[in-house]
Specification:
single chain, about 140 residues, alpha+beta, four-stranded antiparallel β-sheet, 1 helix
Length: about 140
Amino acid sequence: MVRRFARKLMLLLLSAALICTAAVSYAEESVSVEITAVDPDALPSAGNVLVTISINNRSDYELQSITVSQNGISYPIPEDKVIPHLGKAIMPVTVSVQDSQIGSPIVFTVGWTCDGEPHTAQVRYDQTHESDYSAECD
């Protein structure tokens, strides 16, 4: 009888551990947006900068209707661009930087639709060279 109880207790504990692992895995599912490269990384005066934006889709859904804009300018992303479940898209965009913007962060708005719901992220790049955004895709 003690063995049966111990066996049932062990199965119960194992089941609880599996449920907890599944909950942690679900929490890790997200969409992340980051600026992965800027060339050149600094400008002494006005000019063009090539910025590479990466979108990682770790959600259970595909991402559709991808948009990228900055300072009121929309960058061309093919309308049929889809990022599949566990997929990644790398999007280079050329930004024209004016003299008045030198030293200021570059802020992008990236949008997508996930499971029919629209999402947006603001991603900034500045002298610290740090930028990222992560969100759940419900």
